[in-house]
Amino acid sequence: MRNATAEDAHARWCPGARPAGGPGNVSGRRYNPGMDWKLELVFVPVSDVDRAKAFYVDQVGFNADYDQQVNDKLRFVQLTPPGSACSIAIGTGLIDMVPGTLRNLQTVVADVEAARAQLVERGVDASDVDVQPWGSFVTFADPDGNTWALQQLPAR
Description:
The chain is an alpha+beta fold. The protein is built from three helices and ten strands. It has a domain at 41-94 and 101-152: 2,3-Dihydroxybiphenyl 1,2-Dioxygenase, domain 1. The protein is 19% helix and 31% strand. The longest helix has 12 residues, at 49-60. The model is unreliable at 1-22 (pLDDT under 50).
């Protein structure tokens, strides 16, 4: 009888998990298929924090959750789209990306026509609705040029 190995234990406790060396294996670690990985915060590079905060809150309709000037070189602002579990962070001293280089952040909305109307009413330059088999889309950019897409999922 052979001794049980870590792979035997993993196979027993994680049925359906991928074998070592296959997809899902990063640096020798295996991911537990029952563990959630929740995206909570995306950093958006902006050149003017106050202008960006006003755009996202007053024009796009995000909630202003947090705004803290930690010191002269560090400011953290957290903003959350309505109904979203994921927020964005803007500020100074947070990231080294060039402002305006983040592309194609996507949110899902129940009614893309209504969302577009809300954006346009608040002065956002939003695209016309683009209807595709996989959903209907509206795009817009923040004052720095970071781009967003709103998607309405197709009826199922």
